[in-house]
Amino acid sequence: MAKYDKFFNSQKTIKEELTPEDAVTAIAVVTAAAESSLDEVDADTIADLLWDFEFFEELSEDDLYDAVDRLLAVADESGVGALFSSAKALLTGDLLLDGFASGVLMLVDEDELIIPKGRQALLKRLQEALGIEDSDAQEVIDEVIEAFNEAETLDLEEEEEEGEAHQN
After folding, report:
1. How many Cβ atoms are within 10 Å of 99's Cβ, its own excluded?
2. Interhelix angle for 80-90 vs 94-107, to 10°?
3. Sequence spans of domains, the chain
């Protein structure tokens, strides 16, 4: 059995109904769990990363945190693979790429702004499990990394402005 089969090849599904937002969030939860383990997944980290994702601009921060917590509980109860299968069933068209992007968010090294070699096999397996073409996957990866870069630049500019304000 391949390393990630239990996450991406499950025939099981969950009982709970998912919204499209839940499905995209679930892909982030599953990717984070596959990268380490469900016990090591930090809900706050996932929610913080997703919070800057344009897809979630309609949700409040509390709603997003609640959704991540709820999906972690579902994964714990029903299995990570079942959560993935149920989420994948809802993801079509642009939602599919949004789901993949949420998974990519979990794998980017924020300091280096790359997908580390140790996470590339998981990224490729996620791409395959979602049925995303290489060119589309690369475009999403590039967009996610660029978004991290823009956020980092914005943070640096804000720090500089704060520093200048304190000097005056």
Report:
1. 30
2. 140
3. 5-167
